[in-house]
Amino acid sequence: MATPCRAWTQASAMDELTVSIVVPVLNEADTIVAALGRLQTLRSRGIELIVSDGGSSDGTTDLARPSCDAMVRSAKGRATQMNAAARVATGDVLVFLHADTVLPSSAITDIRTALKARTWGRFDVQIAGRSRWLPIVAQFMNLRSRLTGIATGDQTIFVLRKEFEAVGGYPEQRLMEDIELSRRLRHRCRPATLREKVVTAGRRWDENGPIRTILLMWRLRLAYWLGASPSDLAERYQRLPRPPHTP
């Protein structure tokens, strides 16, 4: 059971919390300029933007460097990349944003408001793509997350830096790093579950078929809860053909 939440600062001071957005990337040359372009208004308001590259070979880093405050290079893997960026981030709050996900316009205000009562949280998600199944997939993702207190990376996890450090950051495992981080954070505090939606690209579902992708992810998650190793699950996940530009 989660312990009562304790804010790290007085609620009246929460509006002053500084924010760092971390974007992990791998071979995102086709989309990175547009992705970072959407965040420039936030940079102009003092939000720090850090891109963490896992070894891109397509010029992603050269394209991204002019549009971020820091470029971090690390070994491949979202957990490793996000931890590397968190170590150099200066914000009181860390926001982990996938490169193919768009924040709502009120995101920073919503995050600061949520952290008056909680130490971490996530947004509801909308999946953009061709399949008519995607709104249903997103609805179930949001409902499941609301009931379980577990968030996925697609929902854009945000967390007070001190809380992130207290649980040791992301576990550096090949898969389910977002699930494991959520489990650790949930033991300390239930998440803020924001109904404002981030919009994430449905590339995986469109390319591989929504039913096939949903069933695979359910099987992998069940296996993880039953104790399967993240490395074994990653091998199974890699057998699914990957859409281009997905870390």
Strand content: 15-25%
**In CATH terms, what is the fold-level topology?**
Spore Coat Polysaccharide Biosynthesis Protein SpsA, Chain A
CATH class reads Alpha Beta
Total count of helical runs of at least 4 residues: 11
Give the C-alpha Rg: 17 Å
Q: Mind telling me which CATH architecture this is?
A: Alpha-Beta Complex
Low-confidence stretches: 242-247
Average pLDDT figure? 87
Cα shape: globular
Number of strands: 8
Termini separation: 33 Å
Question: What's the structural blueprint in terms of helices and strands?
Answer:
Elements: E1 19-25, H1 32-37, H2 40-44, E2 48-53, H3 60-64, E3 70-73, H4 78-88, E4 93-96, E5 101-102, H5 107-114, E6 120-128, H6 134-148, E7 158-160, H7 161-166, H8 177-188, E8 192-201, H9 203-208, H10 210-225, H11 230-238
Parallel strand pairs: 1-2, 1-4, 2-3, 6-8
Antiparallel strand pairs: 4-7, 5-8, 6-7
Helix pairs in contact: 10-11
